[in-house]
What does this fold into?
Amino acid sequence: MSYQCLKVERRGPVGWIIFNRPDAGNAMDAAMFDELERAWLELDTDPDVRVIVNTGEGHAFQTGVDVAQLATDRDALRENARRTRDATLRFTAWHCQVWKPVIAAVNGVCAGGGLHFVADADIVIASSNATFIDPHVSVGQVVAYEGITLIRKSPMEPIVRMALVGRHERVDAARAHQLGIISEVVDPPDALREHAQALAEKVARNSPAAMAATKRALWGALESTGT
Amino acid sequence: MSYEHLIVERHGPVGWLINNRPDQLNAMNARMRDEFADAWIELDRDPDVRVIVHTGEGRAFQTGVDVAEIASDGVGMQRYRDSVENFDLHFTAWHQHVWKPVITAVNGICCGGGFHWVADADIVIAASDAQFFDPHVSVGQVVSIEAIGLIRKMPAEAVMRMAFMGRHERMGADRAYELGMISEIVDPPDRLRERAQELAETIAKNSPTAMAATKKALWGALEAGLTDACREGAKHLVSVWGHPDQEEGPRAFAEKREPQWQPLEPTTDTGTP
It folds into this structure.
């Protein structure tokens, strides 16, 4: 299968999904939305892939919806609006119900809708120059999905602060690590992929069946409010 | 409106609510409790107020209910008991369905019932000499509502430890920062209000409409399972589509100027708390 906006690769037991629109900050256009759904399903159904790593080309990890591109493609815009409204999005591993372990390796700026991929991954690591920022309210947009999931996975106050301060403040990798939004900071930054591969290979030594059931149990627990 | 135990002020787009019983370490008596209910509504309805800051006079931020005073006035204790039993509380922004951003700026001691305003704020900052502890169980009282809010917002172990250590241990601002209970430490402590005003003015630059909908989506998410919360959140997200702020925001960004946001529409939807 061929991809224009992504690179989809295999290295040993590890499948890689790499955002590949570096000149656009890896923002998601209509084609990337389609390709992401296809890529998650391709790697999830490939028996040789045990663990999936998600990262980006260039200076940014992911900067959310490419609003300008989407505005020129009315069918895609309408479809994205419908999925957003109906909560039937299909571009992250969680949306696509991937039960293999997913590692997000944040290689730079992660802004706005880019936080979907941090929220919906099982493990998140970042290069030491990574930054997290949510500019939605600074351009009149609302923060919902990404923030809703993140407040269950990390202390809530810093996520609400990021949502309400908008583009006027960034969270750096060191603070994200302290808060448990990510579990590891990789320095120097260009060692990120090598490190993510090594981490993924360690995870790949564990029982795929046990990990899939574990993942269902833990993510499923976020669905209930009590006992 | 005039207040005896609170100071309510406006500085630019920022509304201030200041606990003002410093000789009682800002403990909340019956009168103060009623004034909170009014003050939150007053600031929430004032179209010139975009963001609200809450802090205290003197060496404490808040030390909870003034049990001595409430028990001694004849009717206060029964009224207080009824309000708790029926969960009919009106003294925090969350109780009063305030959908403007609320910053709690903790000066000095925050203990016991003072945690209500840490749990129920959107953003919490603290002076470097702030101290947090929960003495309820040391005087035979139960920790409940404020800690229930906190364990959803931060690591639960730290909250349980405070609940069970009672008055015998205090948490400093530095540990509260590490845990994500607060997002900023202000040093020296006497710069707290200046910094809170600055932070509030920064937040006031964002779309009031988008911030109110964001707040509803995120706080509403605490009420539900993840998928249901995302479905509810989608409604809040979509509610702002077509709103003039969504044209103005990108245009202002492209033209390198501050956006001219629409005033926040008075809300009849009080949300879910």
User: Anything to note?
Assistant: Chain A touches chain B at residues 67, 81, 84-87, 136-145, 147-149, 151-152, 154-161, 163-166, 168-169, 178-180, 219, 222-225 (CB under 8 Å).
